[in-house]
Amino acid sequence: MRLHRLDITAFGPFGGEQQVDFDELSAAGLFLLHGPTGAGKTSVLDAVCYALYGAVPGARQSGQGLSLRSDHAAPGTRTSIRLELTVSGRRLEITRQPPWARPKKRGSGTTVDKAQSWLREYDAAAGAWKDLSRSHQEIGEEITQLLGMSREQFCQVVLLPQGDFARFLRADAEARGKLLGRLFDTHRFAEVEKRLAERRRAAEAQVRAADTELLADAHRMQQAAGDTEPLPDLAPGDPGLAEAVLTWAAIARSTARERLTVAQCARRTAESAHAATERELDDAREVARLQRRFTEARERAARLEERADGYREARARMERARKAEAVAPALDLREVTEAEHRRAAAKETRARELLPETFAGAGAAGLAVAARKAAEELGGLESARRAEQRLAELVAERDGLDRQERADEDVLQEAASWLAGWDATRAALQTDIEGAQEAAARAEQLAVQRDPARRRLNAARQRDQFARDTDGAQEQVLASRERAADARAHWLDLKEQRLNGIAAELAANLADGEPCAVCGATEHPAPARKIDGHVDREAEERALAAYQDADEQRAEDERRLGLVREALAAATAEAGDTPTGQLAEEVEELERLYAEARAAASGLHGSREALAQAEREHGRRVAAQQAAEVRAASRVARRDTLDRERLTLEEELAHVRGDADSVAARSAQLERRAARLTDAADAAREAEEAAQRLKSADARLADAAFRAGFDTPLAASAALLDDAAHRDLQRRLDAWQSEEAAVRAVLAEADTAAAAQLPPVDLWAVERAAESAARGLQDAVSAGDAAARCCAELDRLSARALAGVRRLGPLREEYDRVARLAGLAAGTSADNERKMRLESYVLAARLEQVAAAATVRLQRMSSGRYTLVHSDDRSGRGRSGLGLHVVDAWTGRERDTATLSGGETFFASLALALGLADVVTDEAGGVRLDTLFIDEGFGSLDDQTLDEVLDVLDSLRERDRSVGIVSHVGDLRRRIHAQLEIVKGRTGSAVRQRGAG
User: Fold this and answer.
1) Residues 214-228: tens digit of each pLDDT
2) What is the pLDDT of residues 72-83, one digit of tens each?
3) If DSSP codes are grouped into helix, strand and coil, which group holds residue 868?
């Protein structure tokens, strides 16, 4: 990676646009970056880092990028960083603009613009730049991939901070591990350690869970077996648990099978006893049943003898009924014929009651002749009926003409009345429309005046509020300024006190035989002592932090005061000096007038609609008036025609109706007479026929009763039985006969008669004996079932425990293997003699590479005296692997790097930084780092050592590198001709560049 050009605008201390030409500075291979404290030397390096990664190094990155903007920049100048570089053979240009609070284009105040980024690549073939991306994420990923380093690695490798590496030399193994872990990204090895530990815990949990389940099965087997041997006294995870449980289960199964054999023998004995008692119980129950059966049969025979007379009477009654059944058809026929005769006679009587008295003695034939005459007269009235219907139509039409005439008169009268006021109505509607139009125009004028008045009122209210806010902000600024001044004075007092007692603070770190950090002496005869009230570094830093917080709060309050004043000025410019109350009254009056005008204008549409409706109504009424006059003229002729036709029809119908009101009434009279005469003739014929059939039925009934043996038909009728009575009588006879046969059969049974001769059976005693045997069998069966269930449950649980033990075997082997690996990786295993963790082991290998690379330059810087070596020895109770020692060729002894003097520490840390840069570069894929920056530390070197260090740095040009040295040392300005000077001023810092010539 080689830097070519850097453009800085409104960044850090640089208020304007500054340019750095790294090509000119790199031509000499070694250039100096110098300037007074606070001028902005580090800000140049921050700009390079921000251009590449969108963030500045370490603690200087805060907020969302707003703090990067220069306080010296003009309000309209945007902060921007543009870096041109070559990496992996590609020439790129990166432009980044952090977010900034720019002034609003309209109104007062500021608005925040988002951060922007551009990435371009130079196309040598086309001779022009081409755009690659504008995405922050894509640009960051592309740069990280090309450089092969994160921002933290870049800041350690390219922007070599010597103070960090000096602390690295004196740090313990843990601190070195943190720094190397960030640079070489060994987090994945720590994740391997974590993953192995998790797998070990998971496998251990699974083993314990399997052992717990095995013990649970053992307890279930103990519960199923009842009283047996106690379980082995082992816990989950103990060795030999599975073998002990399986042995105990085998003993329990053997005992359970012995109990099952004993229970089965007892069950067979109980079954034999129960079968014998059951046979005795069945025999006793059978004898008792036969004895009860014989006794019941004797009782039933006695009851039959008592009911014998009734049986004989019922049998005689049944015989008479069978004889009467021969006369039943004749009786039924006589009854049916008599009923028909009665109905026919009643029908004839009803029909004759409806006829006139002139037909009282007429027979069926006479009544039929009279009916035919009435029907002939009815047929002659059809033409008269049509004439009468036409007359009704004429009368209805004449009435309709009269109603139409009255309606037309009402229409003409109403139309004349409405048309008389038409002119006045139209004029009133036109007046309403003109008034609404004037109100609408007035409302538009008021609307134009209303919006400016509202804006002035709002601005006046904001003006009053901002005036109050300005007073409060001024008070806050005065208070914050006073607090900042007090905090600064307190910090300066503490700093002066600490400087006065700095000797005691340095003496606190002295140890016998160790060189002094100030004079280098190894003897300390009279070290300074701390006095009461000594101010240490922490107290000074707390005071400084308090001052910085107070100063930041002061700046924030002053910025807020400026914003409020700007807002007040803008509001005053718009509202003027008019009081807010007066502006509110003016707006209220405009609103009232506007509302009145709008209300008046709202009736314009309704007025126009009302005029159009009135004009349509005028046309309708004129048309209705003309139509009514035409209908009146046509009604006169039609009325005369209807009157003449009506007189003719009335003369014809008067002759046909006779004494009836109408032809229809006369027709109805004739229809009723003909129907009644026809009904009477039919009824007379039916009555004569029914009388003849009744006489014949009486003769047949008398003959049938005589033949059946009855004196009269009445006696035969009395002997008959209906179906229900016949069924009841037959059922009683059949029941008596069935009962008599059943009793005889029971008394004739030989076994029943033999049982009756035996003494009564004691059935209760036999049943008690059978119940006792059944209970004994049930107990034996229950005991056998319980023993069988115990065996089955023990077999099932034993098989389950055996399967669990087989599954546990591979799991325990896996646990043992994972536990060994986890202990080895974590450094807790006995096999790991140095107690070195996996991540520490990898970092130790990297540290060994860094030490080897650093030794090449350290030997040149120290004239071959010092060599850096990596040590695996443990430090105290800690773990080994990250030790770093220096070998002194003058003494031949190896010692810790913390014992180096100030100057030795500087060039050792410089060699370590350069060696680390080479190793990280190789680790990142071999990306060449052609531009490096080295921070302060050269002031601790003597002239000879400084020359040697500069020779080493100058030798970097052999690898086509350029090195920028950041230093205050004045001697370097004479030794290094290519310089980049940062000059600070009241309007911001500026860059001055001088080439090698």
Assistant:
1) 777 777 777 777 766
2) 888 888 999 999
3) strand
